[in-house]
Amino acid sequence: MGDQDLPGVLVPGFEGPSGIYKDHAGELQKHFNLITMQDFLENKTQVGPKIQAVYIWNREPVVDQELLQSLPALKIVATPGAGLDHLDLKLIASFGVKVANTPQAVSSPTADMGMALLLAAARRVVEGHQLATSPDTKNFPTNWLGQEVTGSTLGIIGMGSIGYKVAQRAQAFEMNILYHNRNRRKSEEEDAVGATYCERLDDLLQQSDFVMLAVSLTPQTQLLIGRRELRLMKPTAVLVNIGRGLLVDQDALVEALQTGVIRAAALDVSHPEPLPRDHPLLKLKNVTLTPHIGSATHQARWQIMENLVESILASLNGLPIPNEVLLK
After folding, report:
1. Which residue in 169, 180, 244, 263 is the catalytic one?
2. Which family is it part of (predicted)?
3. Within a domain: residue 2?
4. pLDDT tier, 1 (very low <50, low <70, confident <90, very high otherwise)
5. Is 292 noted as a catalytic residue in this protein?
6. How many domains does the chain divide into?
7. Which of 37, 146, 162, 268 maximizes the CB count within 10 A of its CB?
8. Among 169, 180, 292, 301, the one annotated catalytic
9. What integer is the mean pLDDT of 28-33?
10. Which of 48, 41, 36, 45 is closest to 1 using CA atoms?
11. Same domain, yes or no, for 22 and 83?
């Protein structure tokens, strides 16, 4: 624990995959007394009443009823990124606790990642690297072909801040852009990126050469893409997922990729993460997988930290909270 005169903030720790980065910890300690989960668990009675905020990193610490009951002074839960599927918002609100996230900090790098995956799948970049570096390669075959991106049709499912930035990038590739969203964007926003709204998801799936998932995971969107939806897609289509693994029925996806229902998939997310090492998705040549790194840039992670600090300080000082998550 740090300066006892500063507000107490619960953090997962400083080691392991959920540890706070060293340079981030130094910045956080300028404003807060950082209390690790280990410190808290070892002395709940003394430490619990000092904690006014929970700082989540890599989905830890888990905010459940037991934790909330142990933190009588808690004012805010601050979580990185745009996704909220790891939080029970109604439960947290029932304790009078606010929630803030950082959607703007992750929108550009995640959109970049979406386009990187789209391009990698279209032009078979991973396979090409393996071919170029294999000790068995004697020549480069002239019939080793990928898909054209320029002039193709991109269907974006989820036109929030990330989806819209994907559209901005796709426009530079002269792609025809379709989108499906819970709410239609303003006409001037559509015109700015040349996007056409599809009220029916089926229409988007049938027309798109590339389908990109950039939607939040909710009970309504879980398994949004299943066997039926995959069969609506073109046999030459590529599915790109930068949202959450549970948006897709992975068993149906494996079957579709193995049988030529769609051509390829490029996934930054899966369920679980990481996949079991014997999972069939890991063995398919027409799958490109990355380890959930949509926002994994030095710049984005620093901005996330700054945004979380700003929200926590606003909450503790009774000010409007930037990026406060409101129950709908």
Report:
1. 244
2. Belongs to the D-isomer specific 2-hydroxyacid dehydrogenase family.
3. no
4. low
5. yes
6. 2
7. 162
8. 292
9. 96
10. 36
11. yes
